[in-house]
Amino acid sequence: MCAMFASPIQLLRPLEVFDLQVVMLRSKGFIVLSADINRLRLLVPERPQRFLFMPSCCDMRNLDGLMSRIPINGKIGVNHLKLEHACAVIETPIEPYLLLGVDDGHDRPFVSDSSYKDVLIEGRKPFTIFMGTVYMMLFPHSKQNLALSGSRYQDNGIPRLLVPRHGGEAELCCYPNDEFPPDWGIPSFESIAT
What we know:
By secondary structure, the protein is α+β, with helices and mostly antiparallel strands. It is built from 5 helices and 14 strands. The longest helix is centred in the N-terminal third of the chain and has 14 residues, at 14-27.
């Protein structure tokens, strides 16, 4: 008689998730030094929570290169922004770090500029362009469009990471803040561990 039930799903422990993220980032061409891995392994939370390993932000200097590391539907991501017009409005370390308490924005729709302020009132910080692109590299099957309100573009516009639902490629772009469809989320995090 054969078993009618599949074995239960085993969830990865936090250190296994950490190791998997390091492997994925290295496969995307990021240089992740052993010293940084060892330092950050000690900061991985013991209780399960969503976190991201953030590589050195020196890779932020090439938005086209970052987007090319996000293959969705067999197509590489496309950048429509010029780096000289983009800036982060939250402070982040230069060396690799962990984002703790990550929320992908699925339950936090961007409906206006006040949506961004609500994130701050709750003591959370919104994703920057770099955080959003790294998130999509690590979770390419996410279907959540991201309002990257931890960054600004040109005249205070909020950069967006568009995730195609029916073919096409991921796009990094910026439109006027009043043109956000209701399915855009504001990804955020609780804290940074260095």
